[in-house]
Amino acid sequence: xxxxxxxxxxxxxxxxxxxxxxxxxxxxxxxxxxxxxxxxxxxxxxxxxxxxxxxxxxxxxxxxxxxxxxxxxxxxxxxxxxxxxxxxxxxxxxxxxxxxxxxxxxxxxxxxxxxxxxxxxxxxxxxxxxxxxxxxxxxxxxxxxxxxxxxxxxxxxxxxxxxxxxxxxxxxxxxxxxxxxxxxxxxxxxxxxxxxxxxxxxxxxxxxxxxxxxxxxxxxxxxxxxxxxxxxxxxxxxxxxxxxxxxxxxxxxxxxxxxxxxxxxxxxxxxxxxxxxxxxxxxxxxxxxxxxxxxxxxxxxxxxxxxxxxxxxxxxxxxxxxxxxx
Length: 326
Description:
Structural class: alpha/beta
CATH architecture of the largest domain: 3-Layer(aba) Sandwich
Order of helices and strands: HEHEHEHEHHHHHHHEHEHE
Low-confidence stretches: 1-8
CATH topology of the largest domain: Rossmann fold
Strand content: 5-15%
Shape: globular
Number of helices: 13
Largest sheet: 7 strands, mixed
Distance between the termini: 35 Å
Strand order of the largest sheet: 3-2-1-4-5-7-6
Helix content: 25-40%
């Protein structure tokens, strides 16, 4: 972690587009649901708006302290995953929520900290927790049976040889348990036959799957979106930046449903009329992506997608979270 937390090591992706989507200004209250190093937060605060930052990672505190020092009356940090957005907003004491932004996935700041265990390129404890609570990645690979391990490797990592990897892990852990990141990466690489000129490291998908499972990232995203829906005032703006198809699919489906644009059914079945009124309207169709200039400067921007919507006056829909983790 840098000695100067306000010089954020994690460059916020699609920053200009996010600020345009949120359109914050003096008197507005915006939740930065994934505070991180405070990149989005600082840009929002610079417009005169107030920001409630959320993060479950205790290591972001120095960055939050730096932001609070620069914006003492505009900013507060509440330690919670973004599924706790509604409770955090109530705790803040603010009367009206005008915007919410989500930046989904692991940050470069977390990947760079070997002791966090997110990276297969740096040796560290096999942890992967975004908070300091709950099971670690080591708990999963040393304790789960073949079926559940293969399932998450295929579902969350889209690893085609998920069964082969799970078999290799179970075979090796009989000799000794996994405790280090490079140890697991080596076993996965051998199970998949080495790199063989592959554009990405063979362990990439397995590490992604473990990270998502350890942190319940997809379930958190679903619950976070629903919490934002329940908390945003009419006219409030939602902006979500994703970096993977699994996450983007959840956001796309959520907004498709909540804007009343979900498919009505097949031509062989009666059309079902949904009595619920749309709780959001899209700001623009599809997803916006980073331009060539940003892509050349920031590698994370290459896979980033921004979707944005505006809250209507309709009531929030009933919770449907839990589907992503199935």
